[in-house]
Amino acid sequence: MSRTEQNGTGRRRPPTIHDVAREAGVSRGTVSRVLNGGHNVSPSALDAVQSAIHKTGYTVNRHARSLITGRSDSVAFLLTEPQERFFEDPNFNVLLRGCTTALAAHDVPLLLMIAGTEAERRRNMRYIAGHVDGVLLVSSHSGDPVAAQLHDAGVPLVACGKPPGQGSKVSYVAADDLGGARDMVRYLYESGRRRIATVAGPLDTPGGVERLAGYRATLAECGLPYDEALVVPGDYSRAGGEAAASLLLERAPDVDAVFVASDLMAQGVLTALEKAGRRVPQDIAVGGFDDSPAALAARPELTTVRQPWDRISSEMVRVLLAQIGGEDPAAVILPTELVRRDSA
Amino acid sequence: MSRTEQNGTGRRRPPTIHDVAREAGVSRGTVSRVLNGGHNVSPSALDAVQSAIHKTGYTVNRHARSLITGRSDSVAFLLTEPQERFFEDPNFNVLLRGCTTALAAHDVPLLLMIAGTEAERRRNMRYIAGHVDGVLLVSSHSGDPVAAQLHDAGVPLVACGKPPGQGSKVSYVAADDLGGARDMVRYLYESGRRRIATVAGPLDTPGGVERLAGYRATLAECGLPYDEALVVPGDYSRAGGEAAASLLLERAPDVDAVFVASDLMAQGVLTALEKAGRRVPQDIAVGGFDDSPAALAARPELTTVRQPWDRISSEMVRVLLAQIGGEDPAAVILPTELVRRDSA
DNA sequence: CTGAAAGCGCTTACAG
DNA sequence: CTGAAAGCGCTTACAG
């Protein structure tokens, strides 16, 4: 039975470097050199090998390569979020798809790992060390030890958003939360609003903190007083936004604008305002954050702050691959953009 | 430098089967036998190896194992949907998470592959053959050739929903779409509705066809006439549902119930009915399909047909792993359940 | 039940 | 620029 014939299982035995070498009339070492950049290979040998590769349909056996290089040429996308948030929040999809696509361009497969429970987290950590070249980490809890653990284990890592309490040892990519919040609040001010409230994100997440800081700083810049009654914390969920808005209307019935720290919460805010009989934007202007699919699904469509998800995911991938290649960690902050629609 | 000391890169050199064998005082072959089920190993050797594994912190090098076994011990989750649907439809998240978790229980990593374009599809197909033991396929287009291609390439495969035109050669797991539609339509009938319309799914998808068939059959069983004016096709998107409902109100203003083939479309239907000033469920009852997170986000909350996503994903994984292990393809149909909430 | 040995497909000094 | 050779960490007949 020749090497390329059917074997018993119905799968063909794929060609190896040896088949290519024989076909090209060179040694296996030369074929390998061609595969790895073509350095120290004569033009004629290069040519012969390339057409032999084409003719045989050869593709490298990654297991054999990984065994010797010690690299897996794959990357994990590790999500440490409770189940509900992953299902509800469209931002994760955008990010996951962006990273998958950006990695595919480098021929690097993405292993999806989800750690909703402590047991899953341990299992994933065990797998990561030694099976994956690096990790794209999506996690927002300040209590989450996974960034520190991965860093300590020497695993190349880039987080989406600044991991709390990691100083600058860990790479991350984030939008300019503070600047985005500032743009929105200034926009509300310039459209004549003077009682501007905010539904904040969780204050144990860097994004939540920064957006609130941007709100507060801009109020000061505009000469508006900071009124604690106008600040309500949220949890990035739709239901949380609705509850926050109800509370807000109770505490400050004269509010004329709300900056909401996420589009999903803003959807909840819209629901609460509608129930309360307040018109948006006539009575109360509502500004969101993210420009996620939720912004377009909302009624009215949300004026919001766009996070550049495509760039966030491609930068995460770029920084991670660089780090796997030996570069030092880096933090990347990307600008946001105010998107005007109907809610403010 | 001993084998377990730091090397230059800050990573430790992980223990190998050789370290375990030395520690346990047996040969590497015996260690390997323990690793692969412990057959033909004496109790005392088993014991020595197990504690040596524990002591050294040994984990198998999957690359070395794969090189020799020819298996990768990994599985691809291949999504061939246009970008928008993946972002909008929460069903994908539920399925993706379910499969990830079910595979994790078998220590099998999931490679996420997304093929939105023809180029991505080709790249993924090239990667799959030889790098992955099997594929979980999520794709609904009747024109999609990927199921046939994978099958022809001899790659173990299980689809979510019956792949169009594949006979019974390809394994799949699906909900009982026809039965679910029947339950809903019968429920609407029994609550007194007599002008029951439907917003159907795409008719080039098996789910769309089956749910429509269930609608039609139940009408007949209830002695209601089949009126083409009451049947509007949709595309599983929210916007499509809204458009369909507008059209429906125009064609049949006396409609008193709508069975909508997906929750996301049902959200759009609710929006259109609200705009038209129709109360739900008083004037018009609305029944959805999926029991996705969209059903709970809708106002009023949707009465719908639950697809058992947890079981669908775990069955997909079970059937795929069985097939990788040599079993024949199989089709699995899972029962649905009517979930009563506020919209009908 | 066990060990010695071959070999999976590749990369990489090494010597020329 | 090139080939011969060692070796990555494992599994699996084979002989005992």
Task: Explain how this protein is built.
Two copies of one chain form a homodimer. By secondary structure, chain A is of the alpha/beta class. Chain A folds into three domains: about 15-60, 434 Repressor (Amino-terminal Domain) (Orthogonal Bundle), CATH 1.10.260.40; about 75-175 and about 310-335, 3-Layer(aba) Sandwich (Rossmann fold); about 175-305, 3-Layer(aba) Sandwich (Rossmann fold). Helices cover about 45% and strands about 15% of the residues of chain A. Chain A has 14 helices and twelve strands. Chain A has helices spanning about 15-25, 30-35, 45-55, 60-70, 85-90, 90-105, 120-130, 145-150, 175-190, 205-220, 240-250, 265-275, 295, 310-325; strands spanning about 75-80, 110-115, 135-140, 155-160, 170-175, 195-200, 230-235, 255-260, 285, 305, 330-335, 335-340. In chain A, the strands form three sheets. In chain A, strands 2-1-3-4-5-11 form a six-stranded parallel sheet, sandwiched between helices. Chain A has a four-stranded parallel sheet with strand order 7-6-8-9, sandwiched between helices. In chain A, strands 10-12 form a two-stranded antiparallel sheet. In chain A, helix 6 packs across helix 14 and helix 9 runs parallel beside helix 10 (about 205-220). The first copy, chain A, is elongated, with a radius of gyration of 26 Å. The termini of chain A are far apart. The interface between A and B is large, with 47 and 47 residues. The first copy, chain A, binds a DNA duplex (16 and 16 nucleotides) through helix 2 and helix 4.
